[in-house]
């Protein structure tokens, strides 16, 4: 048993309370490799932003849970080396799909876990979430749960269409489970194709697809039912069109990729939404930079020559999210 406290990590309790009160949101960035983690920590340290490092099931399979945990431990030391005296870094399990997975992360030094039982019937979601909460809270590990199902694919959880969270269920769910934060479904979804072209309109000036707005009415209803309770948005990448264009210009084939407009995320961050999950945008930033080097310098074969620019591009993206979208800069001085 390793406590995250020994590793210099923190749980989400205090940072969420401050974010809800302060009208900003904490970035939750997924990581799978060293360059991504370096970029996240550099951006967070430079802006003094609290940050959540997320590990998905895919990441655990790709990079190994043990290695990722030691990387997060190293990230705390790296942050200090960069001059961030008191780093506020959370190591979070993203979309935990069983009690056993959550327990193994709690036992191994994660400071926060998500139990995603959103595809189960209401009572079963409550029972499983409660079991995880009872275990995690013994070790001061915070728990995120989910009500409602996002469109697209949630790891193993495939949903044909989005099922918005039912505001009338949130009080009972939060009370009976004791969860610390709640992910809700208001029209976001995972990946770089969040809406079909049929769901969008076309901006006559740019020719770009404009997605339908998020269901802010559902968010506000949830806020009314659970005043001050930390709300989480998954699937919140904006799919920057300049990165998509770069990828396509240099041999990629991303068609009609569309994300959540930043103005809507800014608006959400001002509400009880205090954690915003971003993964796909980092993948796009990395891919765009790598493709550019490959196309412009075909003789290059030192990975540092393409992963370095990829890291720089991801760092730029993370800084932009922190400063211009979530407003979490300067909140972890
Ligand atoms: O929730 C989805 C995240 O973007 C993680 O995706 O399972 O491919 O690592 P992944
Ligand atoms: P995106 O695919 O929109 O980046 O969402 C990531 C996410 O929700 C991770 O849990
Ligand atoms: Zn997610």
Give a written overview of the molecule.
- It is a single chain.
- It contains twelve helices and twelve strands.
- The chain is of the alpha/beta class and 333 residues long.
- It has a single domain (4-326), classed as TIM Barrel (Alpha-Beta Barrel).
- The strands form three sheets. The protein has an eight-stranded parallel barrel with strand order 1-2-3-4-5-8-11-12, surrounded by ten helices.
- It is globular and about 60 Å long.
- Residues 30, 94-95, 190-191, 234-237, 277-281 line the site of 1,3-dihydroxyacetonephosphate (13P).
Shape call:
globular
Structural class: alpha/beta
Query: Order of strands across the biggest sheet?
Result: 1-2-3-4-5-8-11-12
Total number of helical segments?
Answer: 12
| Beta strands, count | 12
Order of helices and strands: HEHEHHEHEHEEEHEEEHEHHEHH
Whole-number mean pLDDT: 95
Total number of distinct structural domains: 1
Radius of gyration: 19 Å
* Helical proportion, percent range: 40-55%
CATH topology: TIM Barrel
Task: Note poorly predicted spans.
Answer: 153-160
CATH architecture: Alpha-Beta Barrel
Relative strand content: 15-25%
State the assembly state of the protein chains: single chain
CATH superfamily: Aldolase class I
CATH class: Alpha Beta
Distance between the termini: 30 Å
């Amino acid at each position: 048993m390793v406590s995250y406290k020994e590793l210099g990590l923190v749980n989400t309790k205090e940072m969420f309370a401050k974010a809800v009160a302060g009208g900003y949101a904490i970035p939750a960035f997924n990581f799978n490799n060293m360059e991504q983690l370096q970029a996240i920590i550099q951006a967070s340290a430079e802006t003094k932003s609290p940050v959540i490092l997320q590990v998905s099931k895919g990441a655990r399979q790709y990079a190994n849970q043990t290695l990722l945990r030691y990387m997060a431990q190293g990230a705390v030391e790296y942050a200090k080396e960069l001059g961030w005296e008191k780093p506020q870094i959370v190591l979070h399990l993203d979309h935990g799909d069983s009690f056993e997975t959550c327990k193994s992360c709690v036992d191994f030094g994660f400071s926060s876990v998500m139990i995603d039982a959103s595809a189960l019937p209401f009572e079963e979601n409550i029972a499983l979430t409660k079991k995880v909460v009872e275990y995690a809270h013994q070790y001061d590990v915070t728990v995120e749960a989910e009500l409602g199902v996002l469109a697209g694919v949630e790891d193993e959880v495939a949903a044909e269409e989005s099922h918005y969270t039912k505001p009338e269920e949130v009080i009972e769910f939060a009370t009976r489970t004791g969860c610390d934060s709640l992910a809700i479904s208001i029209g976001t979804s995972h990946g770089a194709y969040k809406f079909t072209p049929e769901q969008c309109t076309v901006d006559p000036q740019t020719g770009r697809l404009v997605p339908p707005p998020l269901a802010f009415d559902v968010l506000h209803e949830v806020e009314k039912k659970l005043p001050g309770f930390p709300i989480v948005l998954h699937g919140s990448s904006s799919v920057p069109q300049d990165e998509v264009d770069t990828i396509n210009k240099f041999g990629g084939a991303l068609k009609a990729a569309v994300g959540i407009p930043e103005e809507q995320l800014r608006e959400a961050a001002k509400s009880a939404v205090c954690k915003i999950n971003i993964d796909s945008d980092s993948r796009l930033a990395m891919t765009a930079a790598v493709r550019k080097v490959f196309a412009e310098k075909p003789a290059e074969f030192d990975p540092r020559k393409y992963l370095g620019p990829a890291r720089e591009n991801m760092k730029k993206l993370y800084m932009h999210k922190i400063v211009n979208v979530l407003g979490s800069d300067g909140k972890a001085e």
